[in-house]
Design goal:
The protein is α/β, with parallel strands linked by helices. The chain contains ten helices and eleven strands.
């Protein structure tokens, strides 16, 4: 069983990007600039955004954090987005999800300039991705593809089961893995809360991407020997034995599944770090578009 080490691979990617930034600087050109908008004080969101800002500093990007209070109106948020859309110094930006309940997420995502949408969530970028045209790929699926490629995990002709159909992971993952690409050419099945006989389907899978948001849902008796496991989930599970009072768990029951797996991502340290690395890669790509 081989651990797909997202922490190590993401650090490799950051080093590659940092080398590109040094070249940009040596040419006397402007370094990439990533901005993030955070609305409210959601703990997980704050952690993610701070990690993104730190990663920018580490590789030599400029970064801007726009921190807005929970009660910020939709109109004010849309105005901030317009400012970033029209600011030539900003190559790409993200609006950290989830947003407070009174703000329409879809409206916000639609307002982001597609050429600066380094999260890859804008319908223009989703459409381009589906048509296999150059676009910003959603950072988490992009990170999973990169992880599979760098570990030379064979995907061509394999049965892939994607658990979950979210616009952020499940849906794009199912499209990307069916396309002609190195980590692609697979036969993909999407399962979700309405799927009947789910375990019968997962038992046939050569590769499983678990992104349903239910901690430790996928058990050892639901997979076959030699399966490749990509665990996208991350949930805080109460645990009295830990100093923080909780532990982080994925959508996969690691203890029962890992003995059967040929490759598996850990939680934490698997898909999470890759998401941030690919966001930086998208920002570098945005910098090339804007010149």
């Amino acid at each position: 069983m081989i651990i797909l080490d997202g922490k190590k691979v993401s650090n490799d990617i950051k080093e590659e990007i940092a080398a590109e930034v040094l070249k940009i600087k040596a040419n006397g050109e402007r370094v990439p600039h990533l901005a993030a908008i955070l609305v409210g004080t959601d703990g997980a969101s704050m952690t993610y955004v701070n990690a993104k800002v730190k990663a920018c500093e580490k590789i030599g990007f400029n970064s801007t954090l726009i921190d807005l209070p929970e009660e910020t109106s939709e109109a004010v948020l849309l105005e901030k987005i317009h400012e970033l859309n029209t600011d030539d110094a900003i190559d790409g930006f993200i609006v950290q999800l989830p947003l407070p309940k009174h703000i329409d997420e879809q409206k916000v995502l639609m307002a982001v300039n597609a050429d600066k949408d380094v999260d890859g969530f804008h319908p223009t970028n989703v459409g381009k991705m589906a048509l296999d045209l150059p676009s910003f790929l959603p950072a988490t699926p992009y990170g999973i593809l990169e992880l599979l490629e760098r570990y030379n995990v064979e995907t061509s002709g394999k049965n892939v089961v994607v658990m979950g159909r979210s616009h952020i992971v499940g849906r794009p993952m199912s499209i990307l893995m069916s396309q002609k690409r190195k980590a692609g050419d697979a036969t993909v099945t999407v399962v979700h809360s309405r799927t009947k006989d789910l375990a019968e389907i997962t038992k046939q899978a050569d590769i499983i991407v678990a992104a349903i948001g239910i901690s430790e849902f996928l058990k050892g008796d639901m997979v076959k020997d030699g399966v490749v496991i990509i665990d996208v989930g991350i949930t805080r599970v109460p645990d009295e034995t830990k100093e923080r009072g909780y532990r982080l768990a994925g959508d996969v029951d690691f203890d029962s599944v890992s003995p059967k797996a040929s490759y598996i991502t850990p939680v934490p340290g698997g898909v999470g770090p890759m998401t941030i690395a690919m966001l930086l890669k998208n920002t570098l790509q945005a910098r090339e578009i804007h010149g």
